[in-house]
């Protein structure tokens, strides 16, 4: 059984499928907010330890907690429990509210920005403005923060229009975030500038494939290396329309007292999954942490890396463009699993899943094996017909291969497992 996968028992119909799902569960457990905070953050003799870094709490006059992202409210809750005797004030915007005693928590909207997000972000700015050079400010930065952190009413309107236009463009998340940084006063290092000259500790819960941590929530605590010109080129490349662009802070003085600490990333999840696979007796190989690409090429790449007795692991997000006039149901993970049906061999199990449990539907992704393909053929289901309009969810409803976890807060991009029995 699994704490995270609701239909674990139904899906674990063979030993190989059970093993694959246990590896999935290990990935989820490694990025669970409570587990991460308890493991990585503690106080010993007035010294705060965070992932190997130390902060003398007696050095600071006041301590604040700010944050944005789907994980922000629960992370603030667990952080406040550790720092309760030291925290003066705080405000975070996430997907829950009223969970802390000291820190104000606001429920915002995601994936689209809104007036509610702006009002919550405004409160964060008000508290942040109180910080002086003698103060310490924790900034929780998580996936979803690009929508939840919203510096103005103008930004939320531009951000909503940008997201809706970009969704159908086929562009990647890095391009989207480049434009987001240049329509915001807070993203792209803007929040770090607003908090200067206080000491800032960014606690990063990364949802970005690979190591591009300045893209998490569009980088409110990182110096931005992109420019207005870069943003404009992307706007023109995808014919996104007109946007009022601003330059991000480039003066390095705003970042001299900023310490960004990555607590959660897909590297963390992949490492935990690798360890679980090896504990189950498999050879394991992490082939990539930032797969961005065509689903056909991604499927072929993973198959090429497989061999009997091996578990191939990868993180990333395939690129999909929604065809005009299509209304198929599904997400990137379901679709990649559907693509993998063309390559799956006897003894193989493939899983692709969203680390936040939400693959554009109520499912987290799908698990398939050679029997899945046979089952679809027996039911005379035409796979190619479902590929045309990306109708992957409906396809796997026929065979009960969808994975259900419910919404989870941490998001470290999509994760993929190809398990091959000996």
UniProtKB/TrEMBL annotation:
User: Gene Ontology cellular component?
Assistant: cytoplasm
Under the heading SUPFAM superfamilies, the entry gives: GckA/TtuD-like (SSF82544)
Chain ranges of the MOFRL domain:
311-414
One function term, GO molecular function aspect:
glycerate kinase activity
Q: Which residues form the MOFRL-associated domain?
A: 20-241
Output the Pfam families linked to this UniProt entry: DUF4147 (PF13660), MOFRL (PF05161)
Name of the protein described by the UniProt record? Glycerate kinase
Organism of origin: Candidatus Campbellbacteria bacterium CG22_combo_CG10-13_8_21_14_all_36_13
């Amino acid at each position: 059984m699994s704490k995270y996968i609701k239909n674990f028992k139904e899906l674990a119909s063979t030993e190989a499928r059970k093993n694959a799902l246990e590896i999935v569960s290990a990935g989820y457990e490694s990025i669970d907010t409570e587990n991460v905070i308890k493991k990585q953050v503690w106080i010993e003799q007035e010294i705060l330890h965070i992932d190997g870094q130390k902060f003398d709490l007696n050095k600071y006059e006041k301590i604040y907690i700010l944050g944005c992202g789907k994980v922000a409210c629960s992370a603030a809750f667990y952080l406040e429990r550790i720092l309760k005797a030291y925290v003066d004030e705080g405000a975070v915007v996430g997907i829950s509210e009223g969970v802390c005693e000291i820190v104000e928590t606001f429920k915002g909207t995601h994936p689209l920005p809104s007036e509610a997000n702006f009002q919550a972000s405004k409160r964060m700015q008000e508290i942040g403005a109180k910080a002086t050079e003698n103060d310490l400010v924790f900034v929780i930065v998580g996936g979803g923060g690009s929508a939840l952190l919203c510096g103005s009413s103008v930004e939320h309107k531009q951000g909503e229009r940008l997201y809706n236009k970009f969704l159908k463009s086929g562009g990647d998340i890095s391009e989207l975030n480049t434009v987001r940084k240049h329509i915001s006063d807070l993203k792209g290092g803007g929040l770090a500038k607003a908090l200067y000259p206080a000491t800032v500790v960014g606690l990063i819960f990364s949802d970005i494939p690979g190591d591009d941590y300045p893209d998490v929530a569009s980088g409110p605590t990182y110096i931005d290396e992109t420019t207005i010109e870069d943003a404009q080129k992307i706007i023109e490349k995808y014919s996104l329309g007109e946007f009022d662009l601003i330059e991000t802070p480039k003066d390095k003085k705003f970042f001299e007292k900023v310490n960004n600490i990555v607590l959660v990333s897909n590297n963390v999840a992949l490492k935990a999954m690798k360890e679980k696979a090896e504990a189950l007796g498999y050879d394991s190989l992490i082939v990539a942490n930032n797969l961005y690409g065509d689903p056909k090429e991604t499927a072929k790449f993973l198959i090429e890396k497989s061999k009997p007795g091996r578990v191939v692991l990868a993180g990333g997000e395939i690129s999909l463009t929604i065809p005009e006039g299509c209304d198929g149901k599904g997400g990137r993970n379901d679709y990649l699993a559907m693509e993998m049906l063309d390559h799956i061999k006897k003894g193989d199990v493939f899983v692709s899943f969203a680390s936040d449990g939400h693959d554009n539907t109520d499912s987290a992704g799908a698990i398939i094996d050679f029997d899945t393909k046979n089952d679809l053929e027996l039911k005379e289901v035409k796979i190619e017909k479902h590929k045309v309009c990306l109708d992957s969810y409906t396809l796997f409803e026929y065979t009960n291969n969808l994975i259900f976890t419910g919404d989870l807060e941490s998001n470290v991009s999509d994760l993929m497992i190809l398990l091959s029995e000996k």
